[in-house]
Design goal:
By secondary structure, the chain is of the alpha/beta class. It has two domains: about 170 residues, 3-Layer(aba) Sandwich (Rossmann fold), CATH 3.40.50; about 100 residues, 2-Layer Sandwich (GMP Synthetase, Chain A, domain 3). Helices cover about 35% and strands about 25% of the residues. It contains nine helices and nine strands. The site of magnesium ion has 6 residues, from α1.
């Protein structure tokens, strides 16, 4: 293979919350990298998922769902989306069959970009042919898409078509990352995300949104990885909810997270969790900075 044949590019996965962006990226790279839950605004960062082939490298960016930001954390989340749009070779807008292609801010962001544009209509397993065709026709009137692809990320249906389309649109370029590299994020980051996923799955209402997880210690030994995580909440009352009666809720979160981490890190894990209050961290610039936003 000559280096003139090698293709590489950045593909930004964007869309409203909960349409399945993270599920789609995980399916496209064949590994659970990004956390996924039924709650909106699960993803808070831009996360690279790198797919390296014999003669290509696709650097996917999973991004937070696009919303009208109400507080400081959400503003930072939207900045991750804007950044990913700026250096995209290809933008993949993910929508679901319930999404009406109205004149929303997403399309405004789009028309300003010179990147190739793919529309992915996800969750077609929840819809039917007529509605899907109707949606495709509506979306195709909005802007000029290089391709519109109906898929089910959950059932891994029609994902080959996405890769095929991306490869056609990817520029000739050497690889950006060494072979074997899966993401730009560290094992510590994925450890904190795994715990956050379990918090999103186990608690209701505002609690998951008020929670941030920091890894205080990540120590790899011969046959075990010792991880100490701090779970930050915004108020004392939330600390009580996270811990639960006799510590039962926190224990459940810890056990579920440890199991996933052992699979992800392919090693035995000892996970220790502590809960602390960091008052109103979501609204304060300095605290957000410390948390990596
Ligand atoms: N039925 C069905 N459900 C799906 C599909 N893809 C994703 N989901 C579900 O939709 C929910 C949201 O998925 P995520 O991948 O977390 O969505 P997201 O767009 O990353 O959400 P945010 O990070 O909050 O913006 C989860 O419960 C997924 O299991 C699909 O193709 N079919
Ligand atoms: Mg997500």
């Amino acid at each position: 293979m000559s280096s003139l044949d090698h293709k590489a590019g950045f593909v930004s996965i964007i869309g409203k919350p909960n349409v399945g962006k993270s599920t789609l990226m995980n399916a496209l790279i064949g590994q659970k990298l990004s956390i996924t839950t039924a709650k909106a605004q699960t993803t808070r960062h831009r996360i690279f998922g790198i797919l390296t082939g014999e003669d290509f490298q696709i650097v996917y960016s999973d991004t937070p769902g696009i919303i009208d930001p109400q507080y400081q954390l959400q503003k930072s989340m939207m900045n991750f989306v804007f950044e990913s749009l700026q250096d995209a070779d290809i933008i993949m807008l993910v929508v679901d069959p319930f999404d009406e292609p109205d004149d929303n801010q997403i399309l405004d962001l789009f028309t300003r970009s010179t990147a190739s544009k793919i529309l992915v209509l996800n969750k077609i397993d929840l819809s039917h042919q007529e509605k899907i065709e109707n949606r495709i026709s509506n979306w195709s009137k909005k802007i000029e898409w290089q391709e519109i692809i109906p898929v089910s990320a959950l059932n891994k249906f029609n994902l080959d078509k996405i890769l095929e389309t991306i490869l056609k649109l990817t520029p000739v370029h050497p690889a950006y990352f060494p072979e074997g590299e899966l993401s730009d994020k560290t094992e510590r980051f994925f450890a904190s995300e795994t715990i956050r996923e379990k918090i999103f799955l186990n608690y209701k209402k505002e609690v998951p949104y008020s929670t941030e997880v920091k890894i205080d210690e990540f120590k790899e030994e011969e046959d075990i990885i010792r991880i100490r995580a701090i779970i930050y909440v915004e108020r004392d009352s939330q600390k009580g909810i996270i811990i639960g009666k006799g510590g039962a809720s926190l224990k459940k979160v810890g056990t579920e997270a440890r199991k996933d981490l052992e699979e992800f890190l392919e090693k035995k894990v000892f996970l220790e969790t502590h809960v602390k209050v960091e008052k109103d961290w979501r609204k304060m610039d300095l605290k957000l900075k410390r948390f990596g936003y």
